[in-house]
Amino acid sequence: MKRLILACLLLICGGAFAQQDSEVGTNALIVVGEPAGTPLSGAALEELTEEVAGRMRCPVCQGLSVADSPSDAAVAMKAEVRALLAAGYTPAQTVRYFETSYGEFIRLAPKAEGFNLVVWIAPVAMLLIGAAMIAWRLRGPRTAAVAEAPGPASVDEDPDLAVYRERVRQELAAAPPAQGTDA
C-alpha cells in the first residue's frame, strides 16, 4: 500500500514537472520558433545558462541580473533559461523569449540600435565635449591675455599718463639724495 501511494506521488509530481517543462517549450515554440541551436547538457549548459541569465535584469531586484538575484522570480527565470538552452534554443532566442513578456527592460545592456544609440553614444560624446571645453578653457585665456595686455611701448605713448610721468620726474628731481649710497 505504501509503495502504491509513493508511486502515485512520484507520477503526480513528475507529471507536474514534465508539464511545466513542456509548457516552457510550447510557449517558446510559439514565441521564437523552432530551436536554432544544439541541445546542451552538463557543464556547457550551466556555463551558458549563467552567461545568458547574467545578461538579463531581474524584474524584482532591478539592479541585479537574473544570475545574481536570490529572488524566487529570478530563480524561476534562470530555470526557464536552462530549460530553453537544454532544448536547443540559442541565447538570442532565449533572451527574445523573455523580451516578449517583459519588453526590452529585461536586458541589462540595451540594444545598440534606434533610439538606444543615444545611451551608447551620449557618454562618449559628453566626454569628448568636456575634454574640448577644458582644453579650450586652459588655452583660451592665455592667448587672449597676452594679446590684450599693453606692452611697454604703449605705456610711453599714452597721453593720459604723460601728466603723471612728468610729476614723478619733478618729484624725483626735487627729492634729496638718498643717504648711504656711494656715487
Q: Can you offer a commentary on this structure?
A:
- The protein folds into two domains: 10-109, Cytochrome C biogenesis protein (Helicase, Ruva Protein, domain 3, Orthogonal Bundle); 117-174, no CATH class.
- Helices cover 69% and strands 0% of the residues.
- It has helices spanning 2-32, 42-54, 72-87, 91-102, 117-148, 152-157, 159-174.
- It is rod-shaped and about 110 Å long.
- The termini are far apart.
Layout of helices and strands:
Layout lengths: L1 H31 L9 H13 L17 H16 L3 H12 L14 H32 L3 H6 L1 H16 L9
Jot down its keywords.
69% helix, mainly alpha, single chain, Helicase, Ruva Protein, domain 3, 183 residues
Brief rundown of the structure:
This protein has 183 residues and is mainly α. The protein is 69% helix and 0% strand.
Q: Determine and state the CATH class of the largest domain.
A: Mainly Alpha
Distance between the termini: 133 Å
Count all strands and give the number.
0
The major beta sheet can be summarized as:
none
The CATH superfamily of the largest domain bears the name Cytochrome C biogenesis protein
Helical content stands at 55-70%
Looking at the structure, what is the overall shape?
rod-shaped
Which stretches are low in confidence, meaning pLDDT under 50 for 5 or more residues running?
2-22
Instruction: Supply the CATH architecture of the largest domain.
Output: Orthogonal Bundle
Mean pLDDT: 74
- What's the tally of helices? 7
Helix and strand sequence = HHHHHHH
Query: What name does the CATH topology of the largest domain carry?
Result: Helicase, Ruva Protein, domain 3
The radius of gyration is 39 Å
Counting structural domains, the number is 2
Kindly estimate the percentage of residues that lie in beta strands according to DSSP.
under 5%
- Structural class from helices and strands? mainly alpha
